[in-house]
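dude i think i finally got it to work??
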Amino acid sequence: MDTLTQRQIEILTAIIREYTESGLAVGSEIIEKKYKLGVSPATIRNEMVELAKKAYLKKSHFSSGRVPSAKGFRFYIQHVMKEHELSTIDIVTYKNSVWDDRKQSDKLFHQAARVLASRTGLLSIVATDSGYLFYAGVANLLKKDEFLNLAMSQSLFSLLDESNFWDAILKQFYKVNEEIMYMLGEDDFQNPLFEPCASVFGEFEGQNMKGMIGVIGPKRMSYDVIIPQVRYFSNLIEDIIKE
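look at this
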């Protein structure tokens, strides 16, 4: 991994936060004015050039500003970001929302997808190695600017009926051997249409079944809020199916 200076980390973090909030390419002036890093716009511009050379930033096609790359987001998630703790209300809500359906896997997964979509405002998916595939929240994505691109949305929604695609992701999950798996833009989806997209999945495993639950949304989603929700819900489902 490239070594970043503390200043570069602070600038990258500011750019990611601004891009997450606005969805627009970020210039040095707004970073200098809004984030008070104690350096001039010229210095920020120079550091943005260095971050781009190291592939943490990308140049926007529509402005002179920069946007975070998948590499930039991944660095931020893994090394900088602090996750929000779930409130007691969140925990109780998640548990109560699926408890009545815990005895039947199909009802459990369907309800879990609905609840996660509702709580995150994104598209949620549950997929298992036994062939279950549930999703909810398609309408949530149509409220996001990124998904006004008709070609991208059509391609993404068509994947919701392709069990082989999700089975391949599930198999990849176990190769990476991580608690949470991210798919960030074109690099991970292996399709340039999906550059604005991202996903966060958590795994669960019982005696006779393995699976994943997670969300798909804009690459600029609030990972600090989304990740703990996905992690808790995947662990909750695992506890339920192990019983």
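Residues 223-242 form the longest helix (20 residues).
im so relieved honestly
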